[in-house]
Amino acid sequence: xxxxxxxxxxxxxxxxxxxxxxxxxxxxxxxxxxxxxxxxxxxxxxxxxxxxxxxxxxxxxxxxxxxxxxxxxxxxxxxxxxxxxxxxxxxxxxxxxxxxxxxxxxxxxxxxxxxxxxxxxxxxxxxxxxxxxxxxxxxxxxxxxxxxxxxxxxxxxxxxxxxxxxxxxxxxxxxxxxxxxxxxxxxxxxxxxxxxxxxxxxxx
Length: 204
Hints:
Elements: E1 14-17, H1 20-27, E2 37-42, H2 46-55, E3 64-69, H3 79-84, E4 90-93, E5 98-99, E6 104-107, E7 113-117, E8 120-124, H4 135-147, E9 151-155, H5 164-172, E10 176-180, H6 189-198
Parallel strand pairs: 2-3, 2-9, 3-6, 4-6, 9-10
Antiparallel strand pairs: 1-10, 5-8, 7-8
Helix pairs in contact: 4-5, 5-6
């Protein structure tokens, strides 16, 4: 049985952009071996937005979710446990060479960067030795290359501009991009930067 295609409907707090071209491409390909993967980027204030997102997400959507949140490199990662409390999907801290499966949530560990290749997650040490790190952009770009029109990128609350270039890469592959409404975000830097970079039509 084919899994349902990802919805492009929006809530009051999310702005969604989806092209008709991406819909027609997805309709002509099998969902079983090439299911959509959703990358979610967040930073400061992102936990509340993530909790709201997953509390409203069906456990059997047929999609996989990868959470890329800015974390203190010295902080013990408890995000998987926090998210597991609010979703019936299995929540897993990402490990190297981990195969992505639908209806699961994968969370980046602290002090690591994450990419996707041939449906597998790959962990590596941050390439930035100092200054600004852009883990969301790194993952979104790899997601766009790996899943093409079945790539989905979402930017939630956070400071800075991480994720904006990654969303552009996803949109260029006819994927779907979504941004939390800045008015509902605790920190609107990442959402506003993403909107300025890629969102041309706002659907509320």
